[in-house]
Amino acid sequence: MSGVALPATHRGDGTGWGTALGLALVVLGWELAARALTGSYVLAAPSQIIAWLIENRALMLRALGETIGNAAAGFVLGNLAALVLAGIALAWPSSQRIVTGVALVVFCLPLVATGPILRVIFGPGDGPQVALAALAVYYTTLIPLLVGLRAAPATWFDLIASYGRGRVSALIHVRLMASLPYLFAGLQIAAPAAFLGAMVGEFTGAERGMGVLTIRAMRALDVEMTWALATVATAVAIVAYLAIGALARRVLKDAPPIILAPPRAEGAEAGPLHHLLSLAAVAAAIVALWGGAIALFDLNPFFAKGPDDVLRALIWAPNAADLRASLGVALGETAVFLLPGYLAGLAAGAGLAILFVLAPAVAGTAMPLAIALRSVPIVTTAPLIVLLLGRGATGTIVLVAIMVFFPTLVACIHGLRQAPGQVIDVFDSYAAGRLQRLLRVRIPAMLPAFFAAARMGVPASVLAVTVVEWLATGAGLGSLMALSASLSDYTLLWSAVALTAALSALGYAGVGLIEARILRIYAPEQLV
Predict the structure, then answer these.
(1) Is 500 exposed, middle or buried (0-12, 13-18, 19+ CB in 10 A)?
(2) Spatial contact of 374 and 240, defined as CB atoms under 8 Å apart
């Protein structure tokens, strides 16, 4: 997990003026570009957006209130679920692998398909919006919280024991206090994600909300409305992100740290047999939860397909070959856009972070723009990118890269600043230049943070590509899942969901394996 906090902005060093000037230039350039492209129906000027918002303020306020309410409910429920799961893993350490494994697979479920399924389960109302908001946030809080609960030095527990206090005192006075920075880091990332989840839920048949207005704007090709919705959604996400950061600064002495690695489970040094057994336990837990949820909600077999139904459909059903072929074609179409976008986002984030370190003056202007770019919910970014770049490969790859870019940027900035001061002093004593310090000290120190962002970038990139396929391109797994839901082909829908979630989880684990091998060579002292 790459829960991050933005680098502190120093007061009185001109950074604030540089940021304000940079933003003013961007707004001015935006206005001039929109005026120059009048009649092209691709870009709305800030003045036009403001005029639309004033004219339609009642409509926007009602929709915004609906979406914020659902997002807030999902934010609370998702984070409560994270606290419960973290408590289970802490109380029974041997369960941690199962808890985190199941949580990862559930987090990798594609929202594009989860929304229609939840709509059938909950029916009309706000249930799907709240549930999707909760699903979008719980994992981003769970992983840093697990790390934080185990982050306290052993000497602190010895001190508690020396006063004759037990496990409850250690939990309250040591573990919970040590976990607060990590908890705030997760909450800071979770807040914008909850807003995104609520909007995706509104796409599945809600009557009110920002997502409903987004669909209306797309169908009407209303450029001003589309840009106004994206601007408001971005502002809400930024405010939520910064508000939790401000709360963290009031509660904590230091800014929330970056999470460099997932929590080490008990028995992490065990051999291959132990890992295989853990994997089997996670798979068994997922199958049990899947079948148990269907039985618990007493879902109609026509709609709800269990693990045995999916296996039968994929392997030995009469039309299994046709189903596999459909999924294979869609997967190939998705991979063509997913992999380049994912790699481009990683490269752009790491490259810009290095530029910020080499030229700190650039960061003051560029960082707020990067925050704004990342804060636009993907469901409103997709129509804008389609307007600007079309429905082809370029627009899809750009959207995927945007989803991966910002977490990578902030993680790498923090990682570059973790280079040991003593080592930097040694290089300074030999009059080594910035480039030498960068290559030999800062980049190795950055690697754990980079791979943390790369792991979380896998489900984020899958979300991005399936959403844009759903809303714009009409190809790939996202379009296939949306089409199967509209045609009530639930066997295909559940099969596509299972395939997408499994591949996302395998991709996450694959990046973890690459990380472990590289860190053993280039940053062995930072392995955790």
Answers:
(1) buried
(2) no
Whether 41 and 221 have beta carbons less than 8 Å apart is answered as: yes
Give the Cβ contact number of residue 254 at 10 Å: 10
pTM over 0.85: no
**Contacts with 394 (C-beta within 8 Å, 6 or more apart), sequence order:** none
In tens, the pLDDT along 112-137 reads 778 778 887 887 788 888 999 999 88
Third-level CATH fold of 59-265: MetI-like fold (1.10.3720)
How far, in Å, CA of 186 to CA of 192, rounded? 11
Kindly report the backbone phi and psi dihedral angles of residue 11, in degrees, each rounded to the nearest multiple of 5, phi listed first.
Answer: -90, 145
Q: Report the sign of the C-alpha dihedral through residues 180, 183, 185, 191, in that order.
A: negative
Cα–Cα distance for residue pair 175/172, rounded to 1 Å: 6
Q: What crossing angle do the helices spanning 443-468 and 393-416 adopt, rounded to 10°?
A: 150
Query: Distance (Å, rounded) from C-alpha 85 to C-alpha 103?
Result: 9
Residue whose C-alpha is closest to residue 182's, from 240, 140, 238, 135: 140
CB 379 within 8 A of CB 203: yes
- Which CATH code is given to the segment(s) 305-528? 1.10.3720.10
Element (H, E) at 11: none
DSSP 339: H
Give pLDDT tens digits for 262-303: 555 444 455 566 667 777 888 888 888 888 888 887 888 888
Contact 133, 210 (CB under 8 A): no
Q: Which helix (H) or strand (E) holds 432?
A: none
- Of 315, 296, 297, 318, nearest to 307 by C-alpha is 315
Locate 66 and state its tokens: 């609906």
Domain positions in the chain are 59-265, 272-299, 305-528
59-265 and 305-528: identical CATH topology: yes
